[in-house]
Amino acid sequence: MKVDGKHFRSIWREKDGFSVGAIDQCRLPHEFVVARLTNGAEAADAIRSMLVRGAPLIGATAAYGMALAMKDDRSNQGIDRAYQMLIATRPTAINLKWALEEMRRVLRKLAPSARLDAAFARADDIADEDVAINQGMASNGLPLIEAIAARKPGGVVNVLTHCNAGWLATVDWGTATAPIYLAHDRGIKIHVWVDETRPRNQGASLTAWELGHHGVPHTVIPDNTGGHLMQHGMVDLAIVGTDRVAANGDVCNKIGTYLKALAAHDNGVPFYVALPSPTIDFTVADGVMQIPIEQRSGDEVSHVTGRTANGRIETVQIVPDGSPVANYAFDVTPARLVSGLITERGVLKPDRASLAAAFPERIATAAE
Ligand code: MRU
After folding, report:
1. Exposed e or buried b for every residue in 268-301, given b needs 16+ CB within 10 A?
2. Per-residue model confidence as pLDDT tens digits over 329-367
3. For 206, which of 106, 164, 272, 368 could close a Cys bridge (C-beta 3.0–4.6 Å)?
4. What pTM, to 2 d.p., does this model score?
């Protein structure tokens, strides 16, 4: 996607061949800064601090993190140490584990002398594959938007989304945003309701920023607004991303997604989830009961950061001194509230049989 007319991915291998560039998402939307990652520990810090975030991008960064770690230690122990360091960064997005296991599988088969180049090559492929998968989701999700547009001749299709499941959360295109960008590029009149997504405001800071740069009409709304809009026919469709989909079709995503799914169900608004296949976890039978939910620092709830009228970036406290806060970063939406799963292999029912039929190879690796 474009930033001021120049094409960017969220992460890339730098021209020196052995370092990695990434857009620093902690600085958006007020500053566009590129970070340079030069070793495995820096890649792990980038994921932990959410300089990079979003399940598919966490996976791609971890793959590059393994490659960067090979610069310092190409032994079997070096592979295992890098794996352990990177897997400990964030617990919920399964793409992290998927990418690390893929890198470890490729590297272990090779002599240590061949591991550095092979690691960078596989990380590049994982990044490219993410882009191709997202383009597949764009094509498969587009008919859902086209069908609504056909029912509203000359009208605008209103889509609600939560958090940032855009190109910044992936390598390019995004998951939930992929069909939205394609519909917009094809000339369909589309408008996006962007949940601000407290506490870190990924919707307000990131989704709004990237939609704006691509010229997609959008409106940022407080998280509590969606239900009201749905009651009044102002949302045609909800599309969100996900950090992990269980074998039974339960969907884990940014905290607050479940409440939007409940509101959509109550109002007959279709609620779709866009996911790349590395986000499916066939080892988890029941998403609500089994997916680990990350709990992050209370500072993200008790403080907010923004730009002051005189242009300074400042962080201020918004709760009384001493008030305890809780910061559950994700929740799980039961499959019964999900209208369909938009994948690179089609729009699926959210159940085990449909996921297994579409992605049999993912069941095989889960059993290993
Ligand atoms: O905590 P984050 O910002 O990493 O959470 C991101 C989300 O919840 C996204 O919706 C999800 O990763 C899907 S991204 C394509």
Report:
1. ebbbbbbbbbbbbbbebeebbebbeeeebeeebb
2. 999 999 999 999 999 999 999 999 999 999 999 887 777
3. 164
4. 0.97
